[in-house]
Inverse folding.
């Protein structure tokens, strides 16, 4: 394919991206209105339970995102196709954002409920470690200019880093301390109306997450095409000077 | 402090961060697309 053809192709964003963006907007607004305005105060937590409609979906999409990083990293190691590296890096960036939010929102909820902003509870600590691992993943990518090496190193961290994610998930069962157990558990720890609101909000956050990762991956592809073009120009220029 | 302070703080923080990131991404896509079109002599 000619360079012009490659560039023209790169301009096009995936067909599903724009509709997903609009769907995310509508779904998130509808779900948040349901959680924020319609849900009744909890018997114990009062209105503070509304924070769960942003805290819990953020945590769920972050963990789902790190699973996507794991899958994309495995696919890169298997296929050695840089599109999987771009997908893994994009999913990491978005998941780091949601993990940071999860910790901040948990802290905001913890202050009036537990009386503290932070404690070294296993769930909180393992989540903070998860955040550090993936911030490290993003930092690692700036250490080398070599695309293949960067992708290989990142994929290794993307696969190994995922080992911590089940620890985060099961930490509330393995070490019962301050943090409550999984909010929507098979044993049912919360009322069904709250569970439904939480699930609706989580689904809306998943659509939002899909759009953000799709857009981030598309931007990474565009920037890669631009770099390739610049490299080609530099090469053509140096050949012409010989 | 009132419980509503924490609730507004939580929702305000969430949508400022997510909204800010979305706007930044859209801007970055716009810049990347413009740079690429410039490179390609305006091809679409």
């Amino acid at each position: 394919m000619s360079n012009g053809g490659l560039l023209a192709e790169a301009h096009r964003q995936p067909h599903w991206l724009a509709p997903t963006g609009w769907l995310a907007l509508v779904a998130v607004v509808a779900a948040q209105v349901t959680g924020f305005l319609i849900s009744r105060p909890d018997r114990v937590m009062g209105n503070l339970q509304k924070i769960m409609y942003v805290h819990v979906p953020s945590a769920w999409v972050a963990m789902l995102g790190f699973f996507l990083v794991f899958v994309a990293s495995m696919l890169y190691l298997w296929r050695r196709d840089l599109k999987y590296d771009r997908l893994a890096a994009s999913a990491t960036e978005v998941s780091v954002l949601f993990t940071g939010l999860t910790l901040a929102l948990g802290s905001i909820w913890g202050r009036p409920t537990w009386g503290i902003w932070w404690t070294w509870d296993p769930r909180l600590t393992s989540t903070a470690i998860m955040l550090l691992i993936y911030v490290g993943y993003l930092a690692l990518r700036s250490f080398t200019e070599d695309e293949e090496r960067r992708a290989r190193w990142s994929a290794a961290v993307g696969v190994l880093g995922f080992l911590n994610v089940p620890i985060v998930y099961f930490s509330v069962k393995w070490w019962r301390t301050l943090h409550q157990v999984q909010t929507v558990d098979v044993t049912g720890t919360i009322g069904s109306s709250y569970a439904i609101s939480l699930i609706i909000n989580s689904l809306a956050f998943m659509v939002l997450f899909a759009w953000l990762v799709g857009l981030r991956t598309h931007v990474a592809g565009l920037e890669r095409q631009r770099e390739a073009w610049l490299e080609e120009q530099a090469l053509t220029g140096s050949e012409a000077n010989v | 402090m009132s419980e509503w302070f924490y609730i507004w703080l939580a929702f305000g923080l969430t949508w400022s961060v997510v909204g800010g990131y979305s706007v930044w991404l859209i801007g970055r896509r716009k810049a990347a697309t413009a740079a690429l079109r410039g490179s390609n002599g305006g091809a679409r």
User: Anything to note?
Assistant: Residues 4 and 10 of chain B are 10 Å apart (CA to CA). Chain B touches chain A through 28 residues (CB under 8 Å).
